[in-house]
Predict the 3D structure of the following.
Amino acid sequence: MDSIDNYRDKAIKLDSKDVLKEFSKEFFSSEEEMIYLDGNSLGKMPLRAKASVERVMSEEWGSALIRGWNSSWWEMPERAAEKVSRIIGAKPYEVIISDSTSVNLYKLISAALKINGGRHKIVCEELSFPTDLYIIQGIIKEINPGLELQLAKSSDGLSVDFDELERLVDTDTALVVLSLVSYRSASMYNMKKVNDLVHSRGALILWDLSHATGAVPVDLDNTKADMAVGCTYKYLNCGPGSPAFLFVNEDLIDKTGSPIWGWFGEQNPFDFSKEFRPSKSIRKFMTGTSGILSMCTIEPSLDIILEAGMENIREKNILLTSFFIEMYKKFLAPEGFVLGSPADNEERGSHVSVKHPEAYRISKALLDPDCGKYIVIPDFRPPDNLRLGFSALYNSFEEVYNTTLELLSIMQHRSYFDYSAEKEDVT
Ligand SMILES: *Cc1c(COP(=O)(O)O)cnc(C)c1O
């Protein structure tokens, strides 16, 4: 049998060929022997983001005070959006930074329903991130009771078959809302194929890109996507709760508007007009005053991704995840783990889920500094997923090797029996 030591040599070889190796120095690192595999939930802190907050605190908020709006803050949502647009294949004027992903979902779902008002169905998926479903349920209950939500089913619990979408999306469908990369399994849709199907039935498509942006290539314009939303705090590394982005195809911007008429969406908020006159640009989807302290991390953090290049990032995260899956097959499957992500590289984002009935307690053992050599930070998603997020910007192949080694040791010693199955507030 293949010894696990051989994989250490392989990891070192892969690290030596890694063109993105130097980028890990862009990120803050603590003293601990820590392997961070949760960049799909909250990216590590870029040193440039830290410097930006410090500069804004002292020079801008501290010294410039209200003058900061004219010197820099007013244009910040557009400047940051321009950088996002390059990562998601959009035009700069189709993207804006504002609010959270949840609020942006609310705004764009409402906007899409207005365009397709005569239709009665909205199609989502049972694998959807809960906030997407909640927002739709709320819109139906509170505003649009004539609408029916239909959920595309998954036959394997990992992904939705294209056939299922073909069956559900019809000429009464107003809107389809899907996650490009699924939060639990990392399974990924073929965006162009889905867009073509949805358009052939006269419906609109809204993509949630939260687990995709910064991890996989996204080409909204060339695949003719209608709308999209996404987080900036996952693979984009912009900080906890940093504001989200939204995208509306240029052909649709004039045709619709935001259901929340806040003064930042007004043509000229500083006219203090009594009547709302929506901005003609994508700014019409803004609401109120931007959170500058959490938005000022976006530009410097995205610069790192633009410098690294999405092609390099994708190439490396395929190597990282497939290296882990290769080791999983040899060493972890025999310990009772089952792969909870697609095995095919083309169908998988940048995290890998492995399923085990004791996944929660195993995640506690990985996190415990007194168990094993490293603190490994994964996360747990019910019912039984141990989720490992691999970031091409700061994870190494040796870390993948060491994580597998720790997991193997936890399983062989049954170390997870030492931990309570009681869940914490945030898993
Ligand atoms: C993380 C995530 C969100 C988070 O939404 P917030 O409003 O930022 O809390 C939404 N959708 C998906 C698919 C996600 O993965």
In short: DSSP finds 14 helices and 13 strands in the chain. The chain has a mean pLDDT of 97.
